[in-house]
Amino acid sequence: MTKLGPQPAPKGPGKDGPKEINHDGDHVALDPIPPRISDQPETEYLYNKVTKYLNGSKIEFNTTEGHEYINIQHGNDVIRMTFFEDGNIEIIQEDGDRLDEVSKDFETIVGETHSIEANARTSKQKSYKNESSGRSSLSAGIAIVLESKKIILRGNVEITGDLIVRGNIKGDGNVDVRGEITADEIPGRENPNFVDYGNEFDTPDDFDTSPLRLERGNTS
Hints:
Layout: E1 13-14, E2 17-18, E3 48-52, E4 58-62, E5 69-73, E6 79-84, E7 89-93, E8 157-160, E9 163-164, E10 175-178, E11 181-182
Parallel strand pairs: 8-10, 9-11
Antiparallel strand pairs: 1-2, 3-4, 4-5, 5-6, 6-7
């Protein structure tokens, strides 16, 4: 008795383009947008099922052992979304803008490092909170600008370099600046014991540093 199985996918064009490609080795996986974080997968005929449309768009299910992936690719050859066998997901957009619009909450949970690279970044919100169990760093090649009606720093402030403040500096902690301070009001300026690593505000301008002379009957 002959056991019948599924027939191979038809070769050549159909109503909406080829039903199966790579039957003659004409297909390179994820061409022309190669993988970024996963290895280049391989495809083997009969294990790579593709529906391809007249504009070049395609939906691809590759079940080649060890190289499985699911791919959706636009015919403009600049947009690809792929789910890889190793668990990686790539969304590649080589041109154009992108908008993620959510009407309610949007939560991102990252188990390890979260990196963002951009020529310029703008963030707008009614409120913002950033918590770190360790060290948080702000780094800039030119300047870091904090703009607000009030900036509150809870704890000690240590700055390596010059500090320019358009307003007053007030706080319960210590202010250590290894450089010059320019501000309207500085905590400790009225205190002659305020020493700021040799900058111009070691002592107030009107503090009398001349020796104290005591006469008979006077006390210090």
